[in-house]
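ok so I'm stuck.
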Amino acid sequence: MVLASWTYAPVDDRFATAIRGRGAHLDGERLYAGPPEPGRDLRVATSHPDYTTDEQKRDLLALRTPGVAPRPCGSAGLEYLAVALGECDATAFSWEAAWDHAAGILLVEEAGGTHLTRSGEPFRITGGNDLPFTAARDAATARRVAALLAGEAGGI
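replied:
not stuck anymore, here's the structure
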């Protein structure tokens, strides 16, 4: 179990921390992602094609649907920070490397968000996940993105 995380964005000189059960903070200020604005397309950062199988590419293409605005992801750590800040609504990643996800998932959780695999189970840092998976700023967004990744038209 991940107990604490640190994320540093050097270009912006922003430093985020999260301690399990004690919240997420950016430069000492509490983070709360909250739900996306109603009526706005969901902003979703998606895996780079180099890290996806053909099947995962098909799953990720399901995010190209009305109401969702997918874009290629940058650094996983910075994408998690964007979700925790509410600057991005969700991620859709297709790889399991713990060093890319452990800190960010805790940051998102402690900012009020959650994570789900395409089968609706929480992402496990230890591996064996049904990929792709999402980390989102709220549970409803996570369910919608996971449903789309699983091929359910329009999400839940």
